[in-house]
Amino acid sequence: MKHKEIIDKMTLEEKAALLSGKGEWQTWNLDRLGIPSIYCSDGPHGIRKQAGTGDHLGLNPSLPATCFPTAATVANSWDPELGDKIGQALGQEANTQGVDIVLGPGLNIKRNPLCGRNFEYFSEDPYLAGKMAAGYIRGIQSQGVYACPKHFAVNSQELRRMAMNAVVDERTLREIYLTGFEIAVKEGHAKAIMTSYNQVNGTYANENAHLLTDILRDEWGFDGIVITDWGGSNDHVKGVQAGSDLEMPNPGLDSARQLIKAVKEGRIKESTIDNSVDRMLEAVFELSQEREKIDDKGFKKHNDLAYRAAAESAVLLKNSDNILPLKPDTRVALIGDFAYVPRYQGSGSSVVNATSVEHMNMLINNTTLHVVGCTRGYLRSGGIDAIMEKAAIDLAEQADVVIYCFGLDELSESEGVDRNHMRIPQNQIHLLEKLVKVNKNIVGVLSAGSAIEMSWHHCLKGIIHGYLYGQAGAQAMLDIITGKINPSGRLNETYPVRYEDTPSLRYFPSVERNSEYREGIFVGYRYYDTANIRVLYPFGYGLSYTNFKYSDLIVNNDGIRITVTNTGDVDGAETIQLYIGKKDAKIFRPDKELKGFKKVFLKAGESRNINIDFDDKTFRYWNIITSKWEVEAGEYQVMVGADCQDIRHTGQINIDGTTTEYPYSKDHMLSYFSGNIQKVSDKEFEELLDRTIPDGKWRGELDVNDAVCQMYYAKSALARFIYKILTNKLKKNEELGKTDLNLLFQYNIPFRAIAKMTGGIVSMEMIDGVMMVVNGHFFKGFGIVITGFFRNRRLNKKYIKKLNSNGGK
Ligand code: BGC
To answer: What family is this (predicted)?
Structure first.
């Protein structure tokens, strides 16, 4: 233990207090011992420090900070160095605002395009996600601040996110859902990590000793602090026992009292608590060092970096007839509400109060283009406005080229809600179809943080996908349009032709408690490639204003070498991607998997030899029989290309294996061996899981872990009535096209989380009473709530008094 001396002086009360939050964002300070509190803030693409009332949904205002493009955007740069630079800027702004821990980056796997938080995550591929996250983490921590990668783990849906159970086999868990975190921990050296709300195979992530102790701490060597997501602690005692440290945000001192009780009853050893306290003290002391602040000039530099990030991350999806870049003096019409009010970030806890926001309609006049006019064209809120539409069509008629700004609206991308389809608003498509009738030269500037269907794709000659491009993205889009910037972004995720093609179609989101990850390792391109499903844009795809030739592939034991030449007449950047496959594999596996990449900038005509090294992840797979990473012996295909379908050269390599016992029987798992996993039978899934499928139906009485929205099962008429009121309110909002994050959160919250987020007003004892009421024992339950309330108040006061005097000695 590093801080034994101070721990020896601490009372059990002080130790327990240090392991839970004191307010929405900070930990307890223990002045007697000179232990200050530490301060956490969201979020991954900018600092969200709330100076006034705090909340974890981004509802109340926060201090101005640079709003960088979101993770989904920057992942398209395939440049961990850029992530590092953004991380440094985040760290500097955190220091300036007195923030010690930045709650990010988020690196959950984009299992399904509909997950409401995909815009906050890097990729459908764990290798790319992990490398990008490691870049951010190194950058943030280089400034003396802690990064807190999240949400560990298997948090790929928003629906009932606090009460659902991810049922996933160990190989898929390791290869797909944990590998990114492994890279973030081992290469990024994250000093904190946030557990997810959900259960993983029946145990809350925050209480999951397999995740937190066996894998995170013992296998990966993580020695930082484990923090719960906000309100994500189920049972703090079980959490600490499993390797979690800090319960956030503000359970009052109820959780601390539970820890003390558990020690006294011998359910947890005091030494286990001491280990957590030791880790917390290390963080507290490290983070209480004086750190450098930045001034206005620093913020200006960050705005430039936000611009660079947007410019290097935008993906040129289409460029028919080389419509782009537009020549000087091209007569353009700028159409679309997004040109006036950009969509540059998503909603929820990651919302940043940007220091400034650029608008295309204002900036376009400073370009070399001849602007014939700008108009909004469609209503942001949906619906068709004939007058706006006519103005847009008239304008389009006068121009050589129409620049059409459009995409997903604010309501479609938010924490707390999954989308229910993959389309952009119909009125935007409607207008586009009208515009193309009067002008065939349309360039679309798309804003959306996750994959969408593009049935309207043929209406556009050029498409620049800016994703959610941050506060300075508008200028970046214009510079790509005019050719000042040569686009170099590559998609971090596949764009399927239609939602029905997606691998987890039938399994996402969970119906009741369980979300069955039946598609296994076949997520994203791993599925489309293997099952031969045509996609609109493959993983890794992106065009440039120049061309790159790949030649002279050499494969050796350490990796590959290839020569890449910029054969066009403009400078540009290319991302060389390395994929590995094994045609004669005995275990089932995807056709190819990303195992390395490098982004290089090449002047027109320049050639360079590029090396990409193999690493410990290149040939490994998780063997469920031996519970180890293993390698299959034999020949592997080494594919080097510009995206996962544009493989330019393939080599071979023979590798010595480690496998002596091969898992899986082909006869029993045909879906997995063929990659056709959209309809995996119960039997096959059980083979994959190596156990029976757990029953996820809600039955019998509701308990503290059930969500408020499950009250339709409640025995109490009052509870069912409340459920009805909430449901009706939500439905009304839906009809009005509104999202009330607070209401949604209340709707999806499990009962126990109420005690964890009310600053000590509600205790778990009171929640037990509430459950009795819900389950039809009104008077008994109500009595417990009332006595619980007074007991909790008295015990909290007593505890605080002790902390303020001598720590409880
Ligand atoms: C989110 C986290 C966030 C936290 C604090 C939670 O609702 O899931 O990502 O860091 O709130 O705002």
So the answer is: Belongs to the glycosyl hydrolase 3 family.
* Protein residue with least CA distance to atom 5, ligand 1: 56
Do residues 350 and 58 lie in contact, with contact meaning Cβ atoms separated by under 8 Å? yes
Cβ–ligand 1 distance for 229 under 6 Å, the answer yes
- The pairing of strands 199-200 and 165-167 is parallel
- Any idea which of 42-56, 472-486, 497-511 has the lowest mean pLDDT? 42-56
pLDDT tens-place string over residues 374-394: 999 999 988 899 999 999 999
Instruction: Say what the pLDDT of residue 807 is.
Output: 63
* 439 vs 412, residue with greater confidence: 439
- Residue 104 CA: which ligand 1 atom is closest? 10
Residues 6+ apart with CB under 8 A from 295: none
**Site to substitute for ligand 1 among 24, 41, 42, most atoms within 8 A of C-beta:** 42
CATH code reported for the domain at 38-251: 3.20.20.300
Displacement of CA 287 from its chain's centroid (Å): 25
CA of 229 to the centre of ligand 1 (A): 6
Confidence of residue 699 (pLDDT cuts 50, 70, 90): confident
Task: Give the tens place of pLDDT for each residue, 221-259.
Answer: 999 999 999 999 999 999 999 999 999 998 889 999 999
- In the prediction, which pLDDT does 741 show? 79
Q: Which amino acid is at 503?
A: P
Q: Closest ligand 1 atom to the C-alpha of 151?
A: 9
Distance (Å) from CA 709 to ligand 1 centroid: 20
CA of 231 to the centre of ligand 1 (A): 9
Segments of the chain assigned to CATH 2.60.40.10? 525-677
Cβ of 121 below 6 Å from ligand 1: no
- Rounded to 10 degrees, what is the CA torsion of 745, 751, 753, 754? 80
Domain with CATH 3.20.20.300 in the chain: 38-251
pLDDT, one tens digit per residue, over 524-560 is: 999 999 999 999 999 999 999 999 999 999 999 999 9
Active site residues: 229
Are the CB atoms for 416 and 375 separated by under 8 Å?
no
Ligand 1 proximity of 723 Cβ (cutoff 6 Å):
no
CA 194–ligand 1 middle distance (angstroms): 9
Q: How many helices (H) and strands (E) does the chain have?
A: 24, 26
**Res 758: pLDDT:** 86
What is the model's pLDDT at position 808?
56
Q: Which two tokens stand for residue 390?
A: 């006519």
Q: Is 56 in the pocket of ligand 1 (CB under 6 A)?
A: yes
Q: How far apart are CA 340 and CA 474, in angstroms?
A: 10
| CA 100–ligand 1 middle distance (angstroms) | 16
Residue 118 CA: distances (Å) to CA of 379, 415, 577, 688: 25, 9, 23, 26
Give the residue range(s) of CATH 3.40.50.1700 domains in the chain. 301-509
Q: State the pLDDT at residue 152.
A: 98
C-beta separation of 280 from 225 below 8 A: yes
User: Which two tokens mark 233?
Assistant: 């602690």
Please tell me the distance between residue 196's alpha carbon and the centre of ligand 1 in angstroms. Answer: 9
42 pocket-lining for ligand 1 (C-beta < 6 Å): yes
CATH class of 525-677: mainly beta
Beta carbon of 230 within 6 Å of any ligand 1 atom: yes
Rounded CA separation 67/44 (Å)? 10
Structure tokens at 481: 């349009």
Query: What residue's CA is closest to ligand 1, atom 12?
Result: 56
pLDDT for the residue numbered 67: 98
Atom of ligand 1 nearest to the CA of 43: 10
